[in-house]
Fold:
Amino acid sequence: RDEDIIERLMELLRDDNCKVKLEAINSLSQLSTSVSSPQLIVPHLLWAGRYDRVKEVRITALRTLTQLAKDFTGDNNSDLREDIVSSLRDALGSDTEDCVRQEAERGLLELGEVATHEDTLIQAIRE
Structure:
């Protein structure tokens, strides 16, 4: 069952090994197109993109979230897309790593979202 696989992969997102987390994110990304309930996956990727201590994990989670948001169509997933855009904006404005902020900005642009005035001010202050 998809739910069992997803549950196991979500457990692996809490592993101490960075490579294990990255593989779990990649597997979740691949599953996301076949799973009937993306709302099972997105919250865990949102957490990883915002709070994981390893910048490569945050970048990979944000990249995966961007791809998921691009794949979402219809009203059923509009709330998930909004959550993803909000997470990308948060990362752009508050992540301590330039490379993570750049990934967030790239994701927003890919989704056709423009940086808000607040995003621009925060980024200017950081530079």
Q: What stands out?
A: DSSP finds seven helices and no strands in the chain. The chain has a mean pLDDT of 85. The longest helix spans residues 55-71. The radius of gyration is 14 Å.
